[in-house]
Amino acid sequence: MATSYHFLLCFLLCFLQSPVLISSSSQTLLLPLSHSLSKTQFTSTHHLLKSTSTRSATRFRHHHRKTTHRQVSLPLSPGSDYTLSFTLNSHPPQPISLYLDTGSDLVWFPCHPFECILCEDKAEKNLTNSSPPKLSSSASTVHCKSPSCSAAHSNLPSSDLCAIANCPLDSIETGDCHKFSCPKFYYAYGDGSLVARLYQDSISLPLTSPSSLVLQSFTFGCAHTALAEPVGVAGFGRGVLSLPAQLSSFAPQLGNQFSYCLISHSFDSDRVRRPSPLILGRYQEKEKTKVEADDINNHPRYAYTSMLDNPKHPYFYCVGLEGISVGRKNIPAPEFLKRVDREGGGGLVVDSGTTFTMLPASLYGSVVSEFESRVGRVYKRAKGVEEKTGLAPCYYYDNVINVPNVVLHFVGNGSSVVLPRRNYFYEFFDGDEKRKVGCLMLMNGGDEAELSGGPGATLGNYQQQGFEVVYDLEKRRVGFARRKCASLWESLNQG
Question: What residue stretch is flagged as signal peptide (predicted)?
């Protein structure tokens, strides 16, 4: 058993082709997340914010479409999203960058030959794999009776999938359809779609010695055709095909918990040159000295809240939201944000792939009303900026603007999270009016009736900046702790 464990750790060190910390005591892997923001993508701050707010709204509302098709929690694109890299054993081995997405449950990427329809503009602006990899000769399709095939097709019965794969009726009845491949699956999302097939591969990676390492039967989606999506996704959601779930099958200590700490960037690409740490497994905090006792990196306080099961979107990390405080005013959340019903409606999704937090109209309106009563009576509303950015309310100011504190109250004792000001109020220079302006970065997700059958709210990655967000799959909870993410990377990388 010990040999297998060390074997897996060595494999992952090579497989992810990035600075990795392996600790025999803490049993963790440390991987770098890169932010996809580029200064050349947007013509102005207004353009950047409008693009990001529109994408956040599109992704959120896509969860509530009435459809029989499998839907991925996308779109993802540069400007607000995070990527991790690994190397596939093609010939020659090729590095692949994938979006980290806690809102979906599959690892997939473009494969050669690859056709991407309506990708001309995206191919230039997106973080793309310069040449889609070719599958190795050892890659094999997943058979139609496998649980992985069922999961990729929204848990359709294997008999139905084998019938689609043209397995004869007598073989379906006897369960002898292992020679028939899992049918291609269709994923749809906010601004595109893809068709892919499931594969398994034994990925071999060379060491410094002549020997090599092999991880058997890693399952991934290989897309030869896509619409408006040239980049793949590393699904970290709650599903059997996700990266954490597959790690759990090989080494539970690596797959039963993961966390990330997103470096605060304020849409400044210079601030994201250093990686944001992605941590697989549990790690031990170093012992604290008296000087370090108050350092948030060495004495983090985690606020935990329980995960809620979602029957319609089982891969979501849903939690309950009790309310939001604006200054001293505590605004209770509507009841449907505290739980998830049998139709998959309600709750709040903690999502690495949505930028701005989306709230139901009633809660958003109450937050804005309280914000306006405190800020709007002193500062002038910037209506023109609101129209150009998709954010509201926005205010003009001259030197310094005073805004109230914002606190998220999750279900569970001691589960309140105080947001840093920069996480909910974005300040920039309005070149059109030659004035400073600031905007609230919480968004209206729609009326409760519009949100039926899907999440009631989403906690976006912009509001998660400067926190270590812990997904504890064993104890079924999500935790938040204020951290200096760049320092956390450095301290973990030093061991």
Answer: 1-24
CB atoms within 10 A of CB 416: 16
Render pLDDT for 62-103 as a digit per residue (tens, 0 to 9): 666 554 444 444 444 445 578 887 777 666 777 778 888 898
Quick one: which of 84, 68, 71 has its CA closest to 33?
84
- Residues involved in catalysis: 101, 351
Residue 296: predicted pLDDT: 58
- Separation CA 75–CA 37 (nearest Å): 15
Average pLDDT of span 109-115:
90
Residue 251 is predicted with a pLDDT of 73
Comparing CA positions, the residue from 233, 269, 239 lying closest to residue 255 is 239
Q: What digits encode the pLDDT tens for the residues 181-202?
A: 999 998 876 567 889 999 988 6
CA distance 88 to 16: 9
The token pair at 177 is: 């359809």
Rounded to a whole number of angstroms, the distance between the first and last alpha carbons of the chain is 25
What b-and-e string marks burial along 178-201, b requiring 16 or more CB atoms within 10 Å of the CB? Answer: eebbbbbbebbbbbbbbebbbbbb
CB 34 within 8 A of CB 85: yes
pLDDT at site 189: 64
**How many residues are present in the chain?**
495
pTM: 0.86
